[in-house]
Design brief:
Elements lengths: L15 E10 L7 E9 L8 E3 L15 E9 L2 E9 L22 E6 L6 E2 L5 H9 L2
């Protein structure tokens, strides 16, 4: 799987840590929750780009250190929503009952973030985004 994530090197003058709201589907929980994910920002301006750090949320870094990501676009009427899904998947990770269904078993954790319309950067999850994220993850 090709890595499409962009990184900012941690220099003292060029980056700032910030946080944003996302939806986490953890194998250790019985339901998904809205949590805060760390992000690295290139500057402190209003139109800054945020680069997420999903490793701060997803468990079992020793078993599976790699985090995969994919983008999903959801069309609902004339509205277009874009999400970025970060996930770990490995045969030695715990079974995630939130994301498993029938004969399909998902082992690992997943986090969903909202992608903003103008900058293409991740933004905070808003009111209805949790329901849309649940819809995406169960499809």
């Amino acid at each position: 799987m090709v890595n499409t994530r962009a990184y900012i090197l941690p220099t003292s003058s060029a980056s700032y840590l910030n946080s944003l709201l996302c939806r986490l589907y953890s194998a250790s929980w019985s339901r998904p929750r809205q949590v805060t994910m760390l992000t690295r920002c290139s500057d402190r301006s209003h139109n800054m780009r945020r680069f997420p750090i999903p490793e701060s949320l997803l468990n079992d870094a020793i078993v599976q250190p790699y985090v995969h990501n994919c983008f999903v676009t959801l069309h609902e009427g004339r509205h277009v929503y874009q999400f970025c899904i970060f996930f770990k998947r490995h045969c030695h990770l715990r079974i995630n009952t939130l994301l498993s269904s029938g004969d399909h078993v998902f082992r690992g954790d997943a986090a969903v973030t909202r992608v903003g319309a103008s900058a293409g950067s991740v933004v905070n999850m808003r009111g209805r985004d949790n329901a849309l994220a649940d819809f995406i993850m169960h499809k």
